[in-house]
Specification:
Elements: H1 8-17, E1 24-27, H2 31-34, E2 46-49, E3 53-57, E4 78-85, H3 88-96, E5 102-105, E6 109-111, E7 116-117, H4 133-139, E8 142-146, E9 158-159, E10 174-176, E11 180-185, E12 188-194, H5 200-205, E13 211-219
Helix pairs in contact: 3-4
């Protein structure tokens, strides 16, 4: 049966639907940044950026550009009523001190134990950029990862052991890819949702470690 991979926007929408009301959330670069556009209007989610905003709102195309108000992807944002601005010391104290309920990040690799590698591939044409990722994965109560399931040349990004330098060991709770939603559990990786038309064997073939299926598996 034919299937269609999820778009970056669809991945972001799935993450947004799973963020609980009242959560304090940090969104990383790339797909995570898109999550803010899909948050349900009846849900109060407080967005944090490591450059010192608590209560970030969507960008306003009609407002004058203010480069002091940007998100992780360097896109213009606004301040919601009740928002606050802090210096980096306070912002990183929030990140490191367990004050964030959730961080949503991208990844180069995730291992079957939930190890995360997302700051350096060692490629000559790239610049290693850890940013605040190590602080976030150490301090946030939960870590969600958004990424394509495989690399551009078809290699699995979900693996037994990460071959890139780690951002954090055993920190990932859930992985959202263009093929599936996967929970990291003590006994291994469990698929809780996958795109309609994709067989489990096909999903396993592009994953570098064993998967199991949830009894209540849902189709996307």
């Amino acid at each position: 049966m034919a299937f269609e991979k999820l778009s970056r926007q669809q991945i972001a929408n799935l993450v947004a639907a799973d963020i609980p009301d009242g959560a304090y959330v940090n969104l990383g670069i790339g797909i995570p940044t898109l999550v803010s556009a899909f948050l349900p209007p009846d849900r109060d989610v407080i967005l944090h950026t490591e450059n010192g905003i608590v209560g970030m709102g969507p960008g306003d195309p009609d407002a004058p550009l203010d480069l002091d108000l940007i998100n992780a992807s360097k896109e213009a944002v606004t301040l919601l009523p009740g928002a606050s601005i802090t210096d980096h010391v306070v912002s990183f104290a929030m990140m490191r001190g367990g004050h964030l309920d959730l961080t949503v990040l991208g990844a180069f690799q995730v291992s079957e134990r939930g190890d995360l590698a997302n700051w350096d591939t060692g490629a000559r044409d790239t610049i290693p950029a850890v940013g605040g990722a190590m602080d976030l994965v150490a301090g946030a109560r939960q870590v969600y990862i958004t990424m394509e399931h495989v690399t551009k040349d078809g290699q699995p990004k979900i693996v037994r052991e990460c071959t890139y330098p780690l951002t954090g060991a055993g920190v990932v709770d859930r992985i959202y890819t263009d093929l599936a939603i996967i929970e990291v559990r003590p006994e291994g990786l469990r698929v809780v949702a996958m795109v309609a038309g994709l067989g489990f064997d096909a999903l396993q073939s592009v994953t570098g470690c064993p998967l199991t299926l949830a009894a209540d598996l849902r189709l996307l």
